[in-house]
Amino acid sequence: MTNETSFLRLYGPIELVSSTTSCWNCKKATPVHALAVSDLEDYDGESEPVRIEEPAFVYDLAEDAMPEPLVKALQELAPNYVPTYSGTLGETTWANTCVHCQTLQGAFYMHSEPDGPFFGGPTREPALTRRQLSADGFDVDERSEEHTSELQS
Fold first, then answer.
1. What gap in Å lies between CA 144 and CA 146, rounded to an integer?
2. Where would I find the beta strands (DSSP E) of the chain?
3. Helices (H) then strands (E): counts for the chain
4. pLDDT tens digit string along 131-146?
């Protein structure tokens, strides 16, 4: 069985996970944020869904991918986590910007580099600051790239 469209199904609770990093541009400390989900399924439109069955960070979501209640919570709790154009991706996605110089703080560094604040997944120690945004999950359509970082073994 195949699916006609591709999307990610994000399972709640969905948490805002926060940390700090040094801005690559101005070198000042800036807060950074990530969305953590308890589980997700990847529907690629061509094969059976793949479910990871563990907590994961999701990032590079299309600017209109999130439900309005999450957008409002992010505006209040993480005002520098906003739809931002990325020259690397060639599109506007939800991303961190420096609170001092408004420069994009790239998701690759934060999630994939060993010294990135979210490297190792959402369950790594030391514990990161967390706030629940939603008990429910939501679907993200094919306009969003599939970018997740799972718990690193």
1. 6
2. 7-22, 29-43, 50-51, 56-58, 81-86, 91-97, 104-105, 129-134, 138-141, 148-150
3. 2, 10
4. 888 777 776 765 444 4
